[in-house]
Amino acid sequence: MKKHLLIAACMGLLSWGAVAESLDAPAPDGRRLGGTIAQELQAEEMPKVENKDLKRERNYPEQPPTIPHKIDGYRVDTNSNKCLSCHSRSTAAKSQAPMISITHYMDRDGQPLATVSPRRYFCEQCHVPQHETPAAIPNTFKNIDQVLEGGASQP
Ligand code: HEC
Ligand code: HEC
């Protein structure tokens, strides 16, 4: 009896394999080209983080600046915040990192607090490092100066 059940189960699996194969289809050519839906392609190598320590231009006045250094292993949780060990008001002089601006100390009513506001505590919500890689998809983004230039040239 047990043997029969086992054989039936095996046959079931085999026929499911055949169905899965017949249902396979070319994958949508998104950011990773080629392959089929069922096929597992090798992932591309991860690009390196740009680590030049040079501030990048901001595209508009309220843009959170991108991070110009590596942040591997920098922990930010309820117990500790590695970023603040260099960027807070009290540590910036020692680390010579730019101090977080006054907006990071303001509560939602614009009242400055003595310590970093909870809404600005998780830095990577707004600030991100950049990778040494070409843009994944082409885009026509214009920064605010280019937008203003375009506007001025129109009648
Ligand atoms: C060891 C000290 C140190 C730590 C830790 C550190 N930074 Fe920095 N950061 C710097 C220094 C110094 C600069 C100035 C540019 C440079 O030297 O890279 C900088 C620059 C920046 C800038 C650019 C500011 C601008 O005006 O363009 C941002 C944003 C930033 N850091 C965010 C972060 C975040 C977010 C973390 C945590 C994930 C972090 N940093 C952790 C030292 C540090
Ligand atoms: C809710 C979004 C947000 C969060 C969270 C946030 N920032 Fe910012 N940050 C900004 C914006 C927007 C600016 C630019 C305008 C300003 O200064 O408010 C900025 C500016 C900065 C600057 C440049 C300051 C200057 O005077 O040029 C540094 C450095 C920085 N942030 C670091 C941090 C660190 C470290 C944390 C985590 C403790 C953090 N930020 C959390 C949005 C954020």
Beta-strand content bin: under 5%
Bound molecules: heme C
* Gyration radius over CA: 26 Å
CATH fold-level topology of one domain: Flavocytochrome C3, Chain A, domain 2
Large-scale geometry: extended
Could you say what the CATH architecture of one domain is? Orthogonal Bundle
Question: Helix count?
Answer: 4
Share of residues in helices: 25-40%
Given helix and strand content, the structural type is: mainly alpha
Distance between the termini: 88 Å
Number of strands: 0
CATH class of one domain, named: Mainly Alpha
Order of helices and strands: HHHH
Looking at CATH, the homologous superfamily of one domain is Flavocytochrome C3, Chain A
The low-confidence parts are none
The average pLDDT is 86
Main sheet summary: none
